[in-house]
Amino acid sequence: MAPAPLSFPLPAARALSNLRFGMVWAAAMVVALDVWFHLGGGVASPDLAGWFDAASERGLGSWLSVTQTVLVALTLWVVVAVVRRTGASRARVAGWVALATFVSYLALDDGTQIHERVGRAFGASEASERGVGAAFPSYYWQLVLGPVFAGAGLFMAVFLWREFRGSDLWRLVGGAFALLGTAVAIDFVDGLPDGHPLDLIGRVGSMARVEAVAETSFRLPGPAVVLHLSRIVEESLEMVAMTLLWVAFLTHLTHLAGGLLLTWTPQEPTSSRILRADLAERLAATEPERTAAVLAEE
Predict the structure, then answer these.
(1) Which of 29, 53, 251, 253 has the largest count of CB atoms under 10 Å?
(2) CA distance 81 to 48
(3) What is the mean pLDDT of the chain?
(4) Nearest one of 108, 28, 66 to 242, comparing CA atoms
(5) Residues 50, 113, 105, 183: is their CA dihedral positive or negative?
C-alpha cells in the first residue's frame, strides 16, 4: 500500500518576505566580506582572500549569484507547468517558456562567462579593428550581445507588464530593471580606457581625498580601490535585481495556484519492453509451425 502524499503548509506572504530580506542581506554581506577580508587585507592568504572577492568568478559572491539565478529559472519552469495546467492560451504559455529559457541561459552565462568569452573572441578578431568595433570604447560583449540582451529585456518588460498589470508586482519588476540598467552602466564605465571623457572611475579615484582614504584604509591606489568597489557594487545590484524578480515570480505562482501537490505515478512500460512483448507473442505463435517444419525435414 502506497503511503499518502505529505503536505507541507507554507505561509506564502511570510516566506516571500523572509526570502527578499535574506537575499538582500546576503548581497550586502558579500560586499562587506569583500571589503573586510579581500580589499582590506583581513585574510593574509591570497587564496583565502580571493574566496571573498565579490568581483571574481571564483568567489563566494559568484556562487551565490549563479545559485540564485538557477533557482529563479527553476521557478519560471514551475510557472510554465502551472500555466499549462490552467488551460492558458498558447501565446501565454509560449511567453513564459521564452522567459524561462532566457533566465536559464543567464544562469549558464553567469556560471561559464559566455558573454565575456564572446567579447574577448570578438576583440581578438579583425572585426574589432574596423568600423564600429574600432570605435567602441568599452567591453566588446556589450557591442556584440548588448542588442540581444536589450531585445530580450524589452520582451520581458512588455510580457510581464501584461501579466502583472493591475497588481503591485510590476513595481518589483520595474525596480529590478532599474537596478540591472544601473549595473550595465557601471560595467560600461568599468571597461573604458584611462583618460576617456566618461571614465568616472578614474576621475573619482584620482581625487586627492579618495587617494588618501585608499592609502590609509587599504594601502592601495585610489583608482584601484574605486574600480574594485564599483565592480562589487555592480554584482550586488544584479543580485538584488534577481531577488526582486524571484519574489515577483513566486508571488505570481501563489496567485496562479493555491498550492502544488506532487504525486508519484506508476511507471509505464517503455516502448522497448512493449516491442519485446509483441515479438514474444509473435514468436510463440510461429514456434509450432517451425517445429513441425523441422520434423518434416528430418
Answers:
(1) 53
(2) 42
(3) 89
(4) 66
(5) positive
- Neighbouring CB atoms inside 10 A of 260's CB total 12
List the Cα angle 240/243/247 in 5-degree steps: 145
pLDDT digits 0-9 by tens, 43-94? 889 899 999 999 998 899 999 999 999 999 999 999 999 999 988 899 999 9
Q: In the prediction, which pLDDT does 296 show?
A: 53
Q: Please state, in angstroms and rounded to a whole number, the distance separating the CA atoms of residues 93 and 171.
A: 23
Phi first, then psi: what are they for 260, rounded to 5°?
A: -125, 130
For the chain, the structural domain boundaries read 12-112+145-259, 267-298
Sign of CA dihedral 211, 216, 219, 225: negative
Four-residue CA torsion sign, 212, 214, 218, 220: negative
pTM of the model: 0.85
- Helix, strand, or coil (residue 117): helix
The C-alpha atoms of residue 296 and residue 298 are separated, in whole angstroms, by 5
